[in-house]
Amino acid sequence: MNESTLRRALLVIAILGLAAGIGAWRTGLGPLEADTIWTVATLPLVVALAISILRDFWIGRFGVDAIALVSMSAALLLGQPLAAVVVAIMYAGGTVLEDFARGRAERNLKALTDRSPRVAHRTSTLGTETISVEDVAVGDQLLVRAGELLPVDGILLDASASLDESAVSGEPLPERRSAGDVLRSGTVNAGETFSMRASALAEQSTYAAIVRMVAAAQTAKSPFIRMADRFALFLLPATLLVSGTAWYVSGDPIRALAVLVVATPCPLILAAPVAFIGGVSRAARAGVLMKGSAALEALAQVRTAIFDKTGTLTIGGAELIEIEAAPDRDANLLLQLLASLEQASHHVLADSIIRAARSRQLMLSHPCNVREYRGAGLNGEVENIQIAAGSKTLVLADKPLPSWAKDGEERYRDESVLRVFVALDKRLAGVFTFGDALRVDAGEALGELRQVGIGRFVMLTGDDGRAAERISRLLDLDVTVANATPAAKVAAVEAEKALAPTMMVGDGINDAPALAAATVGVAMGAHGATASSEAADVIVLADRLQPVADAVRIAQRTRAIALQSIVAGLTLSGMAMAAAAMGQITPVAGALLQEGIDVAVILNALRALGDGRLGRA
After folding, report:
1. What's the rounded mean pLDDT across residues 386-406?
2. Dihedral sign, CA of 200, 204, 209, 215?
């Protein structure tokens, strides 16, 4: 019999004993028979609790459960079996309620582990075989059918795929992936059957890392919870002192018993764990994994935010920033023609150009007579139009720049960008500017972080000063550190941490030391940056910055709820103890009152599962 079942059984015994005793008393069997029934119904809980306390004490743990044992034992010794059985019901009911609350808080975390991939379909020249996910080797070609979980991390082999990533990243809508894209285990094939190549073993894949972090979140204790545990050591002698004083002053041992009863079992130890597990669970629903409640509590106290630039504040890589079209040209048509031509190119920009065209749902044509000039550009024919694309020198030769293009040339003169000049039939038709574009939600995310109390924003980057300064101006950052090596990033983080609790947000392998050095390291893990994820305390699974702000808000709200529950519980218990010491509360009434306090505190702690002011799922 597990502990949860035992607690429910003890609650049922106590309730049946109370009812049987009341029935015996009302049918005229006499108070002695009723007292005997109530005593017998209380003893199993007393014995079980005594064994539990001795076992905990043996491993160096001590809690307020001792007060419950003292109060029930005292009630039996003082001839108050009715009070004893009511305390037994209230205590057993509190533990069952705690089990329910903890189970409710852990439900979302358990849902993650319950849906772990278990099988894979491996394809070879001999056909397709179904194997255990543990038998998948790196390089295996796997078939993922419609509606199935991706068994391991891998690379998409087919032209496209539609994936439901909601359980991993919190993204509500299916995401389209193209050939060569990285796929993560635990996501669901929301489209047609596709093939992928395994890039990691099962235990090294994304979903296995999630399961490990869930296990850590359920067992690790935050400093806040450990403080509550330590307070329990003080509470028992304090309760005995108040109880003894009430007995000494009044000469009535029943008053002492009433004080013991209202101090049982104290909401201190129940509220904080339930609230923090609820917060971790709420964050998991938002696509943010926290490595235990200690990470959540630390995040709640952050006052400085440090960001890596490339891949964190910006998208990373060369993305289309702007299209400058000649007055008589359409920007989408230019992009369609350029992307059609770039299908024949091996240049690093080709994928970005083609991806930009497909994002606008432009139909590409087959290029003809393409000639590529390494490092300079290419020319060819698309839809019977002669097109040249590349550097200004290749496209314009000695021709002057048209007046419509001069503003852009001046605007990007000192920027770290790539400019692609496009000519149609030997006449300049447009200029495409590529660079490390700012994330769409970066400004909004930093604005929300300011609203929740983050007062200082720092950017660390290995890029040159001009590129860093452009991003800093757009986001109104306080400090920018450019040309930073990994060692310089660590030094900057240490300096900021000495001034205030600090959060470091990064995505690359070179960010791992800085993430580990910060008060809280937050890894942008959407693209499987394993080293940074291992070094971080918090992992954002969506490829957005907004979840970082959501995580801070969730952490702050969770810590506030835990604190509210503890303060309210202690205040109400203290008032009840004072009233009992003055003879205003009987032991039976005290037991009922204390149970009401426990229920209120736990229900308040469960609010951490909800959104509060957070409007996102």
Report:
1. 89
2. positive
